[in-house]
Amino acid sequence: MMRSPFAVLAFLALVLLTGCWNKYELTEWAFVQAVAVDLTEDNRIRLTTQFYKPGGGLEGAPKASESFNIHTEGENMSEAIANIANEVGRVAQWGHIRIVLVSEQIAKNQNLKGILDYFLRDHEPRETAQFAITKGLASDYLTRKPYIESTISQQLREISQSSKRFTGMSKKMNLLQVAIALKSQTGIAVLPYMASSGGKKDPAVMNGVAIFRDYSIVQPGIPAGKAEYLLMLRNEYERGVVTYPCEENPKSKKDTFEHVMVSSTTKVEPKGESVAVRIHLLLVGGYGELRCSKIRKASDEEHIKQKIAEYVEQELQKEISAMQARQLDLLNIGDALYRRHPALWLKWKSSWGRRLSQATFQVKVEIQMTNTGLTKPMPYGDQEE
């Protein structure tokens, strides 16, 4: 009796695909949620690895913690990670990692090459895992309790995302984006910075950006209040609030403009021995608090729009001047020059810091109102005249 070749192939497939030969069982894995990288006193790598612990037990019983931390040390990342099995009794599985935290200390004493090399070379960790530089020990951030999420690692990941989306106080970057930024033509990268207001139990917040040159941290970084203007210039700002001073009493009262969309375009052209840079910034939004401004007619609104634009332009120019004084290309101008004028860039690359300090910048800010607030033209509490 002849058998169909398809039936024979199907039978062989069933035989060959059954079982999990040379694979770990589920009970042999420990799933990593986050990792914090610090430095010991003798310059060894100290890892704090947070693992997910599945819940269980009887209904109505107190809920057990859904994560736990393991501390290991080693001469390098590979050795510190290999020692995890000695502590937890399982093999670390990195495919579900949420965030990688690196302390300022290790960023000062050892560059990021070794850390990034491990995570990007190994096949398990996701390149989309979030990344942040931390003020103080990175391990302290994994000891906090989450507000809403099941684990603090997921909470920190959400903080890094929401800070970029809703406040503009910092930026969001994953491992791959960090690696690409550090390989820019200028060797300068602007990375997310996480801080805490004090003790180990105080909230963690995204607080500005850290600056790196050739894989090593450059201090000081840029705090949240200034970082928003840098991110506007870099076209990495999504939304937030501009607080601008009142004309009659600029020190005591301030109005706010809540922008829901920010877009900037930058044009770079060689000029003499340096470049001319033109930046156009569009802020789309509406009024927030009107503590002193009054809108009775269309001309009043135009005056306020002009005032907001002038204030933002001044703040942007301050960031540009500070950048030029430090000879740090935080706007990726060198990379733009490399793309359009590669031969010229190769000639200028070694002296780019000096040329950047001599560059001319022209900044134009445009305000587009989506909510005029004309139904409430007076500051709350004022009487009609």
From TrEMBL:
Source species of the chain: Cohnella phaseoli
Entry's Gene Ontology cellular component terms: membrane
GO terms of biological process kind: spore germination
Source species taxonomy: Bacteria, Bacillati, Bacillota, Bacilli, Bacillales
Keywords: Germination, Lipoprotein, Membrane, Palmitate, Signal
Keyword Lipid biosynthesis applies: no
Family per similarity comment: Belongs to the GerABKC lipoprotein family.
Subcellular location: Membrane
Domain Spore germination GerAC-like C-terminal intervals: 207-373
Record's bilayer topology term: Lipid-anchor
Protein name as catalogued: Spore germination protein KC
Major location category of this protein: membrane
Gene3D superfamilies: Nutrient germinant receptor protein C, domain 1, Nutrient germinant receptor protein C, domain 3
Record domain Spore germination protein N-terminal: where: 23-194
PANTHER family named among the record's database cross-references: SPORE GERMINATION PROTEIN B3
